[in-house]
Amino acid sequence: xxxxxxxxxxxxxxxxxxxxxxxxxxxxxxxxxxxxxxxxxxxxxxxxxxxxxxxxxxxxxxxxxxxxxxxxxxxxxxxxxxxxxxxxxxxxxxxxxxxxxxxxxxxxxxxxxxxxxxxxxxxxxxxxxxxxxxxxxxxxxxxxxxxxxxxxxxxxxxxxxxxxxxxxxxxxxxxxxxxxxxxxxxxxxxxxxxxxxxxxxxxxxxxxxxxxxxxxxxxxx
Length: 221
Description:
Layout: E1 2-13, E2 16-28, E3 33-37, H1 44-51, E4 59-64, E5 67-68, H2 74-84, E6 85-88, H3 100-109, H4 118-127, H5 143-154, E7 161-165, H6 173-188, E8 192-197, E9 208-213, E10 216-219
Parallel strand pairs: 3-8, 3-9, 6-7, 7-8
Antiparallel strand pairs: 1-2, 1-4, 4-5, 9-10
Helix pairs in contact: 3-4, 3-5, 4-5, 5-6
């Protein structure tokens, strides 16, 4: 489904060039659950953002079903992200003046679609275990509940790939386990799941683990 070919992102710091991501290669298929681990600053988030079409690579390719997404124009890549990628960013990303249900529906309304997403959004909240909070506002939710809403929102357009950046960051161990079980169940339903994490206890939920060190991605055996 998703293939990275010699993907590199170069930045300049202190007058010197360095590769935040250095010649990365990997693939993820439908139903796979891949984790990427590494220290802060190792290039993990930069890699995810390039996979999601948010940052242009310096060189290399990101292929989605054989098509290089960085050959799309701005409108095409925005539509691609909306339809094909469910993205769960770090931290709290909900809109405070919208209810939980309204937050989940937001990606649906970014492009013209027929029908009303509310019923499906409610079913996603049921799936994530927080349907009772549909009419609540983000300020009324715990950290784990906020993360579940973000996951439900990422699924509203039925994307084949879900990308999550540190989805269990700042959660307690019990809530972390609940979120990881949810992501594992999503992968079990056929959605490819790609996460970045620094928590080694979460790796048992995935099918495959990569490590990132100074921009270099390698498969952990």
